[in-house]
UniProtKB/TrEMBL annotation, chain B:
GO function terms (MF aspect): 2 iron, 2 sulfur cluster binding; metal ion binding; monooxygenase activity; oxidoreductase activity, acting on paired donors, with incorporation or reduction of molecular oxygen
Pfam families: Aromatic_hydrox, Rieske
Domain of life: Bacteria
Domain Rieske: 41-146
Protein name: Rieske 2Fe-2S domain-containing protein
């Protein structure tokens, strides 16, 4: 059995790292948003009678 | 022989010409409005921030307590009439009410009436005899708006929101920040024609855009807004005996050598979103009472509300909108959290905060570009006269104990 080279990771491990990075980014952005009293949201207007 | 000298008759005194700029007496209502203009809706906080736990807010010098009950947000004066303790320290003992933390005085959220006194038994004779001031509240676009009046019926909030907000769905990003400085200085800074070209030339938001050096503008009124309309734009000047002044830098985008009235430098040629085009804004910067700035770009619109809080302080409410629906809104989330929040509603706007916090006028010595400032003051004067007359004629919604 050959050992893997330094700096390589299996596909599942890469996926876990990527998911963790995305989740960290989301948590960080939400935390920064709350901390700085910042929000982004959609404003959807009701359809008009003409539409 | 020495003759007594007769005192010389002094020449008839000339009426002393008052130097302009010593005070704001030319705009008396504006001068008196240190705590803001009454009878308007103000954005106070984000809807998601108001829960069943009472929270304190300050608006136009008045302390308010906000609380959510049964999905609705209520605002009451944040001072128990009994001993002056803030109601925001209290809690909800019964649905639809708020109870003071000190002696259990309990107020109905809707009417403000004292409906129970927990430390005086269920038949307390004072119940129904005290009315706490309440303020009309509306939630719109994820923001809590409070009408700051004196017991009169409010006008519809829609009359005060930007007209283009009713013209299409959009995605909204914003930041609310408590800041130092009189709200009037913040308004004047926002509509000021001159400062951006010098103060903001170093901002990261303008890192790759060349700011002009000076403009010729006129002020045009459209409905309740006044617009700064650009007539000439200059980018490089020779100052006799001093040298050349320009904001040109090798890494900055070369600005168009044309006058533009939508978007900022470098936005020429970009397609204008149909909703924005439909509004036919005469200029890209406009302001309306009670202190709302609108800056129009081809594909998004930036707003600033300067909400008076306490003397010498205000709340900055910076909002950016883009007319998008569904999945096409997603890039805006990235743009707002990745850039706009930090560079525009952040560092760029904090340069304004710095100057607004340091401004100390009057006295003042105004110069040509300050026509924008005086136009704003004049707008407040004209608007306030008619607004106050209309407000006095309105029906009362509540008579409260002071």
């Amino acid at each position: 059995m050959t050992s893997k080279g330094k700096g390589t990771a299996s596909k599942p491990a890469k996926g876990i790292f990527a998911a963790a990075a995305v989740m960290t980014a989301v948590v960080l952005v939400r935390w920064l948003g709350r901390r700085s009293n910042t929000q982004v949201h959609r404003v959807v207007l009701p359809p008009t009678k003409d539409a | 022989m020495v003759q007594a000298q007769q005192p010389q008759a002094s020449p008839p005194s000339q009426p002393k010409r008052r130097r302009p700029g010593q005070d704001w007496k030319a705009w008396p209502q504006y001068d008196a409005a240190e705590l803001g203009l009454r009878g308007y809706w103000y954005p106070v906080t984000w809807s998601s921030k108001v829960t069943g736990t009472p929270q304190r807010q300050t608006l136009c010098g008045e302390k308010l307590v906000l609380i959510r009950d049964g999905g609705e947000v209520y605002a009451l004066a944040d001072r128990c009439p009994h001993r002056g303790v803030p109601l925001s320290l209290g809690r909800q003992e019964f649905p639809g009410t708020l109870t003071c933390a000190y002696h259990g005085w309990t107020f109905d959220l809707e009417s403000g009436k004292l409906c129970a006194v927990l430390t005086d038994g269920p038949k307390s004779p004072i119940c129904g005899k005290v009315v706490q001031k309440t303020h009309p509240v509306e939630e719109r676009h994820g923001i809590v708006w409070v009408y700051l009046g004196d017991g009169e019926e409010p006008h519809p909030l829609d009359e005060q929101l930007p007209e283009e907000w009713r013209d299409g769905s959009f995605v909204l990003g914003g930041s609310m920040q408590d800041r130092r400085g009189d709200w009037r200085y913040a308004c004047e800074n926002g509509f000021d024609e001159g400062h951006a070209k010098y103060l903001h030339r170093t901002s990261l938001w303008r890192l790759f855009r060349t700011m002009p050096t000076w403009n010729i503008t006129s002020i045009e009124r459209q409905g309740r807004w006044i617009h700064r309309v650009q007539k000439e734009v200059h980018f490089r000047d020779e100052h006799s005996g001093l040298g050349v002044w320009t904001n040109y830098r090798w890494w900055k985008k070369k600005p168009p050598e044309r006058v533009f009235n939508i978007g900022n430098v470098g936005d020429l040629g970009k397609p204008v979103h149909p909703v924005i085009g439909r509004q036919e804004f005469p200029g890209y910067t406009s302001i309306s009472v009670p202190g709302v700035l609108r800056v129009v770009y081809p594909d998004f619109i930036h707003y600033e509300w300067w909400v008076p809080t306490e003397p010498g302080h205000h709340r900055y409410v910076g909002i950016m909108i883009q007319y998008r629906e569904g999945l096409s809104t997603l890039p805006f989330y990235l743009k707002y959290f990745g850039g706009i929040r930090w560079f525009f509603h952040g560092q760029f706007s904090q340069q304004d905060e710095w100057m607004v916090g340091e401004t100390d006028a009057p006295p003042e010595r105004l110069y040509r570009p300050d026509a924008s400032l005086t136009a704003w003051r004049k707008l407040v004067e004209e608007t306030t006269t008619t607004h106050e007359a209309a407000r006095a004629a309105k029906a009362r919604r509540q008579d409260y104990d002071v």
